[in-house]
């Protein structure tokens, strides 16, 4: 075989083995551009407040209330409007959502 034929043969073998490696049945452990879901709470977060802070500033309509309750995983959620009477007992597994006069979420905290 000539030098050029050997070179072409070697490139063909390398290309074939490269394609075979790409056809692996196991998924890559990390892929660029793919986001993993956030599922862990911050340390000491018993009511899931760290999972729902993106709802602060939104009006507490039925959809927001359902999503905060579901995503936080809190045992219960109480929606506190201005001037509303609430108990002062602290429950780490309860989410307290403070609202302003327009029904907008001001804060989400455990308690």
UniProtKB/TrEMBL annotation:
Key words of the record: Signal
Signal peptide start and end residues: 1-20
Pfam families documented for this protein: Inhibitor_I78 (PF11720)
Listed InterPro entries: Prot_inh_I78
Xref: Gene3D superfamilies: Trypsin Inhibitor V, subunit A (3.30.10.10)
PANTHER family: PEPTIDASE INHIBITOR I78 FAMILY PROTEIN
Name used for this protein in its record: Peptidase inhibitor I78
Organism, scientific name: Sphingomonas lacunae
């Amino acid at each position: 075989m000539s030098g050029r034929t050997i070179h072409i043969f070697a490139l063909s073998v390398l290309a074939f083995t490269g394609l075979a490696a790409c056809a692996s049945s196991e998924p890559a452990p990390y892929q660029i551009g793919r986001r993993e879901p956030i599922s862990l709470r911050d340390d000491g977060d018993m009511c899931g407040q760290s999972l729902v802070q993106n709802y602060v500033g939104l009006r507490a309509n039925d959809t927001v209330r359902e999503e905060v309750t579901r995503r936080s995983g809190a045992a219960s959620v109480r929606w506190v409007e201005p001037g509303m009477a609430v108990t002062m007992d602290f429950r780490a597994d309860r989410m307290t959502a403070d609202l302003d006069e327009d029904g907008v979420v001001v804060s989400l905290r455990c308690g």
